[in-house]
Design goal:
With about 600 residues, the chain is α/β, with parallel strands linked by helices. It contains 24 helices and 16 strands. The chain starts with 9 loop residues before the first strand and ends in a 6-residue tail after the last helix. The structure holds phosphoenolpyruvate (PEP) and magnesium ion.
Length: about 600
């Protein structure tokens, strides 16, 4: 990586949503075809520009063929035919000749020449009345995006001749939806920065579980950065630094070293039980969105998976949605999490996790709309496909099942009836499953808290989804950074809701966990111990820190503190009391 000394360092402040430091070349993701820099080249560069185009075309061809093969083997040849059309577009000689002519005669960079030719085709296709031809504009755009992306990573880029490292990059975008994130190459993305977003948006959650430093709510990002700029992401402090100077980089070395030494201290805690200092057990499991995370989760010593969010797998590719494919995926998780097991949550589509086929018309308030169990109960056939797939996986490990977004007792009873039907369907086909599979309800809506005693009689456990419980209790949209300061996990009303839920669970003889992001917040650990929470399902990167924090806490002292919280009227006063305990018992973990 060549850092340009002449460029000035620029700092942007946002909200850090996933801790860690990442440095690398930026890649700006545009929703539409993004116009590259309008660069003029020296005549001596014409041949090397042409060579870059050839390389990018070869790389694009390979990627398209790979995709075609993947889709053809999973979905059949007819579905992969679209990629033949993409190959034809890629190799269209009239387009390529025109691109080369512009570079040769007008001395424009090959990116700009390619962009300008393709953009003209797209614009004229979009004006045609015939919907079929209009649709082709999408295909051309798709191919062009790939070519331009490959051009960015082939050899030099731009007039300064800077060499970009292939494979490592920091993604900069206006926004990343969960489905955008699903389709990124997760092995190559080292950091995220987006203009909008908040700590509990699903993109932020995914960044944390993939251990990718991320910063959101950076309003000026589009103007400040270009693809290829060197960028530093400081996920601890919510900072994004463009063109960091050598002295800035040296300062960050110290933070990276400190983080390494904490990790070293945590190492012996892997594969230990999680016990308070007075030996009260709390199960510490991990949240996952993708099965690729399983190895990391086990590495961190998680006691199983406390929340498998199945919608990301489901949304990533349509052809994965068959009962067999879902069952295979869940089976892998069940086998990998032995002996502790996994809690598989049925689909929680809706809110910020939209499925394009199901949401043709946008809803006025997606977070208050057709989401989670509401959607599942309205599509019982599809719901039972997933229930049968989960049940089938239960024959291969310890599988628990839970329903998201429960707001009424009838919904929970309806979901249980569908589960009974799904069991009956498997029995009549002679397919084995765990007859005693445990079933839980997510408590993430205030109406569910208020009827928790009734809900508890229907299930084996509760899992509190604080991400939503905070948003619905405080009327603060979890993805709206404008009101992010009002999204307060320490709000006394939120703590009260959690207290009610845990007490109702225990009154009815069932256990209660927390699987929202607040479970991972080590500043809240004294509250969870004091309230008597039985399980915490956390982001893998926070697991050992949570284990250390809990091991230093005594449940009676924590209980005294949480009793005093009843008198608090503000988040600040609740936070202060919990922070005091954290600073006293595990100061080294407070950055
Ligand atoms: C939650 O709401 O806290 C939760 C765990 O579910 P999700 O973040 O997927 O809505
Ligand atoms: Mg939720």
């Amino acid at each position: 990586m060549i850092l340009s000394e002449s460029k000035t360092e620029t700092r942007l402040q946002g909200i850090g949503v996933s801790p860690g430091i990442a440095i690398g070349p930026a890649e700006r993701l545009g929703r539409t075809l993004e116009e590259p820099e309008h660069l003029t080249i020296d005549r001596s560069r014409i041949e090397s520009e042409k060579a870059r185009l050839s390389l990018a075309l070869v790389a694009t061809r390979e990627q398209i063929l790979e995709l075609q093969q993947e889709i053809s083997s999973s979905e059949g040849e007819s579905h992969s035919a679209i990629f033949d059309a993409h190959l034809l577009i890629l190799e269209d000689s009239s387009v390529l000749n025109e691109v080369l002519r512009i570079t040769e005669t007008q001395l424009r960079s090959i990116e700009w020449a390619y962009y300008s030719v393709v953009k003209r085709y797209i614009d004229s296709l979009r004006k045609i009345a015939d919907p079929y031809l209009r649709e082709r504009a999408v295909d051309i755009e798709d191919v062009a995006k790939r070519v331009l992306k490959n051009l960015r990573y082939s050899g030099t880029n731009g007039e300064d001749g800077r060499v970009l490292q292939p494979g490592t990059r920091i993604i900069l975008a206006h926004d990343l939806t969960p489905s955008d994130t699903v389709s990124l190459d997760r092995t190559k993305v080292h950091g995220f920065a987006t203009e909008i977003g908040s700590p509990t948006s699903h993109t932020a959650i995914m960044a944390r579980s993939l251990n990718i430093p991320a910063v959101v709510a950076l309003h000026e990002i589009s103007e400040a950065f270009s693809s290829g700029d060197i960028v530093l992401i400081d996920g601890y402090h919510g900072l994004v630094i463009l063109n960091p100077t050598p002295s800035t980089l040296a300062g960050y070395e110290t933070i990276i070293e400190r983080e390494k030494s904490i990790l070293h201290e945590l190492e012996p805690l892997k594969h230990q039980e999680t016990l308070t200092s007075d030996r009260k057990k709390i199960v510490l499991s991990a949240n996952i969105e993708f099965i690729e995370e399983l190895a990391g989760v086990a590495e961190q010593g998680a006691e199983g998976v406390g929340l498998y969010r199945t919608e990301f797998f489901y949304l990533s590719r349509k052809e994965l949605r068959s009962e067999t494919n879902q069952a295979l995926n869940y089976r892998k998780v069940a086998e990998a999490t032995r002996p502790h097991g996994v809690i598989i949550r049925t689909l929680d589509i809706g809110g910020d996790k939209l499925c394009p086929e199901l949401f043709e018309n946008p809803e006025p308030n997606p977070f208050l709309g057709w989401r989670g169990i509401r959607l599942s109960l309205d599509q019982p056939e599809d719901f039972r496909i997933q229930l049968r797939a989960i049940l089938r996986a239960s024959a291969h490990g310890k599988v628990r099942l839970m329903f998201p977004f429960i707001s009424t007792l009838e919904e929970l009873q309806g979901a249980r009836s569908q589960l009974e039907l799904a069991k009956e369907e498997l029995r009549s086909s002679g397919i084995p499953f765990d007859e005693k599979i445990e079933v839980g309800a997510m408590i993430e809506i205030p109406s569910a808290v208020m009827i928790a005693d009734h809900l508890a009689k229907e299930v084996d456990f509760f899992s509190i989804g604080t991400n939503d419980l905070i948003q619905y209790t405080t009327a603060v949209d979890r993805v709206n950074d404008r009101v992010a300061h009002l999204y307060q996990p320490f709000h006394p009303s939120v703590i009260g809701m959690i207290r009610e839920t845990v007490d109702a669970a225990h009154r009815n003889g069932i256990w209660c966990g927390i699987c929202g992001e607040a479970a991972s917040d080590i500043l809240m650990a004294p509250i969870w111990v004091g309230l008597g929470v039985d399980e915490l399902s956390v982001g893998a990167s926070q697991l050992l820190k949570a284990r250390l924090a809990i091991s230093r806490l005594d449940s009676a002292t924590c209980r005294k503190m949480t009793d005093k919280l009843r008198d608090c009227g503000t988040s600040t006063s609740v936070r202060k009391q919990s922070l005091e305990m954290a600073e006293k018992f595990y100061p080294e973990l407070i950055l």
